[in-house]
Design goal:
- 51% of the residues lie in helices and 11% in strands.
- α9 crosses α13.
- The longest helix is centred in the middle third of the chain and has 23 residues.
Length: 384
């Protein structure tokens, strides 16, 4: 079997790392950026922390800040026009997964105009050229979109999340600056952090996992378990914020290359049909999906138990695996994730439509245990 691993060309880590931007731009010879971000990050001054660096270095840019929390085909199309009108030769993406995903869609279409309808990018698109160069600066510790070959866009016509997988979309440079995350609200810190935990656990057990990806995912699980409660409860704590910033990147390095599973397959329609934040959807499902997958994942769950500090050598592997599931539920509760679908406005009557999309989702086939539509319906019912 041949395993492939794709990573950014260069990445920078540490509080204040955004100050590397001028040197990066000069080294690569870029002239003008399209800054892709959202209005909230503009309003609350987070984007300004990056824009000030650009201004001081006299780097030319124009801003596209129409990114939505769940970005759409329309977001991407308008961004493509903004990029062309600006005459930009590279993109600076500032934000969470939404900004990163929108930037990827823009960059891919600009350099591959045959995919201008955007919906044709769903799945594994046969693009020929790399995206317009993207420098990615995440403001959340969760999606790891700055280091993945995936992006998710909503097709408004079908009310469906399109998962796009394309080695040509990966940002050439990632700048992981925890200072950009200090003002992230507690609820969003929790949701994005549990998204990162879901990436790490699904990436650890997915069908495509192998020794190299396992190494990254186990470390990411250990770090998220340690640092997420700190980041949630003490948001300006440099150790907690930087720990989460690095941990989510590590998780992304691996899952991007090996895939995910039915948790993400079920979470995507929750966002597409009910506008539930992606991290909340993933986190709500995670302990239940872990228990579903336990029969085929016991050995790896034992490793999770070890790095989360709940392993007991006197207990059986099955008992330690169950303890790992319980500990992930405890972490989710600790950071304030709701347990039940009814708490977020999803009712029993909605489950069939969710299951229809989940069984077709590109992530679902990567699940380590074979899953049917009936299984998915039952899993939704368990958290109803």
């Amino acid at each position: 079997m041949i395993n492939r691993f794709i990573l950014n060309e260069v990445s920078y880590f540490g509080p204040g790392a955004r100050k590397e931007l001028p040197g990066v731009v000069a080294r690569l010879g870029y002239k003008k950026a399209l800054v892709v971000t959202d209005k909230g990050l503009m309003q609350f001054g987070v984007a300004k922390m990056v824009l000030d660096v650009l201004d001081e270095a006299k780097i030319a840019y124009e801003i596209y800040d129409e990114v939505q929390p769940n970005p759409t085909v329309t977001n991407v199309k308008r961004g493509v026009e903004a990029c062309k009108n600006a005459g930009a030769d590279f993109i600076i993406a500032i934000g969470g997964g939404s900004s990163m995903d929108t930037a990827k869609g823009i960059g891919i279409v600009v350099n591959n105009p045959e995919f201008a309808d955007v919906v044709s990018l769903e799945g594994v698109a046969d693009t020929k050229k790399k995206t317009l160069p993207i420098i990615a600066l995440p403001t959340t510790a969760g999606t790891a979109a700055e280091t993945t070959i995936n992006y998710v866009i909503i097709d408004e016509t079908k009310q469906k999340k399109m998962v796009c997988v394309d080695p040509n979309d990966i940002p050439c440079v990632a700048i992981i600056d925890a200072e950009l995350m200090y003002s992230l609200p507690k609820s969003l810190t929790a949701a994005t952090g549990m998204d990162a935990m879901t990436h790490a656990i699904e990436g650890l057990i997915t069908k495509g996992a192998w020794e190299m990806s396992d190494m990254f995912e186990i470390k990411a699980i250990e770090m998220i378990h340690k640092y997420l409660p700190i980041a949630v409860n003490d948001p300006k704590n440099p150790e907690g914020r930087n720990g989460m910033a690095v941990a989510q990147y590590i998780a992304g390095m691996a899952f991007s290359n090996v895939g995910l599973g039915v948790d993400h397959g079920m979470a995507h329609p929750m966002s597409a049909l009910h506008n539930i934040p992606h991290g909340v959807a993933c986190a709500m499902l995670l302990p239940t999906v872990m228990r579903f997958n336990m029969p085929v994942s016991i050995d790896k769950y034992v490793e999770i138990a070890k790095v989360c500090g709940v392993y007991d050598p006197a207990k059986t592997n099955e008992e330690n695996a169950a303890a790992a599931c319980d500990e992930i539920q405890h972490l989710s509760d600790l950071v304030g994730i709701p347990r039940h679908l009814t708490e977020i406005g999803i009712e029993e009557k909605d489950i069939d439509a969710l299951a229809d999309q989940a069984i077709q989702d590109v992530c679902t086939p990567g699940n380590p245990r074979e899953v049917t539509r009936d299984d998915i319906v039952a899993l939704y019912h368990k958290i109803l």
